[in-house]
Amino acid sequence: MVAWHRILVKWWWQDMGVGLVAASAALAASLLYLLVAMVIPLRFSPDAQYWAGYAPQYAFVAGLVVGTVLWRRVMSRVSTPKQGAFVGSAMALGVVVIVPILAGVYVLLFPVLLGVVTGQKLHYAIQLYPAPLWTAVGVTRTVATAWSPLVGAPLVPFGVVAGWAYQRRRRLSGY
User: Fold this and answer.
1) 40: exposed, middle or buried (C-beta count within 10 Å: 0-12, 13-18, 19+)?
2) Cis before residue 130, ω within 30 degrees of 0?
């Protein structure tokens, strides 16, 4: 029982560690994007600027989920650093794809969430649809075009280096 618990906790911490590294890299790339956008004036619409400002929170969640779920499923103990670099780039691309989807889902579910928080009946929130659906499609498109390409450019190399380094350290240390 103790050995099972030790193995389960060790795997869980390793999975969460990879997820936190992916989430931190996604957050760092997203904040780097915001810093560059403040220094170099990008000609985006106010709506695109608004959603690009909210994208770092979605990037952190997407990185945590993608890193925690994908790494353990794909990588094994005998994986090479080259395979780690490939999976790191795939995780970065996954984050770049998932962030616009998360923003759209948030907008789509916002009337229902607001109804739950304020104590309104569900049918009041349902009456608002299909307007939030079209807004969610617009937000997803906006984040995918204004945020994803510019954050994906530094995030994919971050993912490659992080995946390579993680697998190299893991092979050298024997974990």
Assistant:
1) exposed
2) yes
Instruction: Give phi and psi for 155, each to the nearest 5.
Output: -70, -35
Determine the straight-line distance between the first and last CA of the chain, rounded to whole angstroms: 21
The angle formed by the CA atoms of residues 133, 56 and 135, to the nearest 5 degrees, is 15
Instruction: Report d(CA 143, CA 54) in Å as an integer.
Output: 10
pLDDT of 5 above 80: no
- Residue 144 is predicted with a pLDDT of 92
Distances (CA, A) of 145 to 33, 126, 155: 14, 29, 16
Tokens of 56: 């770092």
Q: Coil, strand, or helix at residue 158?
A: helix
Place of tokens 């380094």: 165
Query: Does residue 162 carry a pLDDT above 60?
Result: yes
pLDDT 10s digits, 83-138 = 888 888 998 999 999 999 999 999 888 888 888 888 888 777 778 788 888 888 99
